[in-house]
Fold:
Amino acid sequence: MNWDQLQLKPRIISAVQRAHLKSFREVLVSSEPDLQKMTGLSRPDVQELLHAAASACRTRQPITALQLQRGECRRLESGLRLGTGCPVLDQLLRGGLPAGGVTELAGASGAGKTQLGLQLCLSVQYPVEHGGLSAGALYICTEDPFPIRRLQQLISEQPSLRSDVPPSLIGRLRFSDNIYLEHAADLDSLQVCLSRRAALLLAQGRVRLVVVDSVAALFRSEFQPGDWLERNKQLLTVSSMVHHLSHEFTTPVLCINQVTDVFHQPESSSSSPSSSVSPALGLAWANQVTVRLMLRRLQATVSRGDQSSALRRLEVVFAPHLAQSSRDVAVWREGLRGVLDPVLDPVLAPFGPDVAQQKMVLPLRLGSV
Structure:
């Protein structure tokens, strides 16, 4: 245990080390008189030590009586969401990503996972009344280079995506200044980034979203099939870190995940030939995530004006507050948006061109009529 990370006087740290107290738990389970006897510290110094140890072990920020009176604790615990910027997706997710938990987004290469991660990095910077959290984002890359050109395109297209936000507000936001990039080439680098850099940025209030893209890449490259015991141990370590960050700072954490080998089976013409893939890292990782989303690329295409996109499907696999459901989505210049039939969904039809003027194009199969 590194006592130097606590904001304590040097004499208190020296006394604790001389007493061979190796963990915060050893301090907290001891009474004040016992700690005074073991360390030789005064009562005020022992009380300061107990307060610092308790703060280090606290898993989330305390709730004040004033917050209880105003009902803010309910919003902090369960109601705070990070919107996606698309009303169709926000309806599917009941407002967006929960602030207190780890959300996994799994899918095959090219499904659009990184697109949604970038979109959330912009959405988080909006005020709470517009689905954001009024802070920046930390984006941790573990495999591919960060797609800076695509990010710049999304920033320039924000007025098109966020027609619900006043243009003057969009113009005031300095999106690129509030996205912090980190590259982790191995598991040690990832753990250092989560435990130090991410924690510092969150504590300073600079970010309220952490994206790991992707969580499976490092485990697949560093471990062989026979190393499953050590791999699961490291998985639990990373999981513990991201959960601690999420609950300590009421921050959504998005972990982008790869998928296992594809198993082909007969599908309908609008379905993906790889729809039976499963997220990577197995049951050990599945038990660690709060919400699991799957993004699949289908065989159909959809067009809108001069743009066309492969059709995707965003599916809620499991979540404590969501039913299993899905929405079709497409990737446009301005970002990921839901694709709806305005006749079937008249409530959401007025929310922009992602609903209007769309044309579905399905691939023809040999032997079809």
